[in-house]
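Consortium newsletter contribution from the modelling node. Members have asked for a concrete example of what our holo predictions look like. Here is one, prepared for the flavin-adenine dinucleotide complex that several groups have been discussing at recent meetings.
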Amino acid sequence: MQLAVTAKHMPYRPYTNLLPSSDDIWQYVTDMITDWNLSSYIRLSHEVLDAQWKGTSTAGRWALRVHDKTKDVITEAAYDHLFVAVGPDHYPNEPHFEGREMWEHSGIKRQIYHSIYYRSPDVFQGKNVLVVGAGPSGVDIVSRIVDIANSVRFLWIWIMRILTLSKTYISVKPVAIPELSGNIVEGVHVKPVIERFTSNSIVFTDNTSLTHIDTVILATGYKFIIPFLTAGGYLEETSNISRLPDDRTLRTNTRYIWPLWQHMLSLDPRYPLGSLYFMSIPIITPAMYCGIVQTLFALHTIADPSLLQSRDTFFSHLLAQEDRLRAKGFDPDKYGHSVYLNQGSNAYYDEVVGYLQERGLGGMPEIPPLGQNYSDSWRVIDMPHIFSVVVNWLKVESRGEDVVRQWLEGVETEDQWVALMDKLFDLGEEGI
Ligand SMILES: Cc1cc2nc3c(=O)[nH]c(=O)nc-3n(C[C@H](O)[C@H](O)[C@H](O)COP(=O)(O)OP(=O)(O)OC[C@H]3O[C@@H](n4cnc5c(N)ncnc54)[C@H](O)[C@@H]3O)c2cc1C
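And here is the predicted structure:
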């Protein structure tokens, strides 16, 4: 929903669909760059190749090598502070499957690829497709191709409703975030987890197999890796976070980057606190809002480093947060960056801004006075609420362009968008 992913008090343009398209999102970001005069600071097609700290634990600079792809030249530059904002969905995670290559090369036009390479449903005309994984990408893809492909078989990891009259399959497996279940994809059969591939079939853990699949799409998520930090020796990729008492150097097991205070401030002792910040790592959290909150923290602490507590104090806070997650039954090594499972997204924003408020910054631009939450109350809504609004909006859409425009008539300010969502929610299951 568009408003959930906006910056504060910056709604989308009037008449933008409540469920914005990628073009709408592009427009929103472009408007933001124009309104905030940012274009002169942006270097497109420049890739950071590696970053190395040149200095000590108390002083120094980040030395970056950057590839200018337009001119094909590599430049070097040094910076006091480094913000890593490469996004959580950049490096595909592909599980290892025994026999995958044998299956792929034994049939004509068989293919397996990650959902990051999915572009359009049209190419699935007449194909038999197996989508692996039922996260947002998996759900999104099956819902788009189910009517186009011959049959879509879907490895389902959430609790789903099985619909009749379909040729497709769906599997049920306990999940970390049951509240997110309930997505409905009609016409999809359920299959359990893949056990292995053979030259002519895909075998599942229930000993069933499928022999006629042409395409397997791995909607299996992304890896939290930052190759340019790893290349410079400042982020170890490891299978085990292994919290050794004397070793707090930065590492990732591809799901969790450790040790970071509030998912953004590196506690690695090789450089001063405040030298390396990460943006928008928390998952199932609107990235735009999250990034702005984290930027508030980062910029204020860069401007005044005395705002930063000691590394040990931040470290104790991190351990306490991990303990809180464990107490809820979630392994921090897997779910450490899910603020949704921990304190919740809005509580997270309030904690980060609260840190600044408690240090006398309440009332500064964008920071409410001490005692007042940063998160707008309308953002504190639960998943069933969101689904209800979405379902009713889809009903509005199904009535055609004119009805959509009537609903969007005069909706311009953030308050008016919120009122629109409230109205959709109040319609309840009856809908429009
Ligand atoms: C299929 C899909 C659907 C989604 N749907 C939604 C949704 O409906 N609502 C929602 O809120 N979120 C959604 N998300 C999540 C959302 O896209 C991300 O949360 C958001 O894009 C993160 O923003 P970001 O700026 O942190 O990272 P990104 O948007 O990923 O931007 C990171 C940028 O860093 C660049 N970069 C990476 N490495 C380097 C390097 N070495 N040097 C220079 N640049 C580099 C990348 O090229 C990229 O331009 C979806 C994600 C996916 C994959």
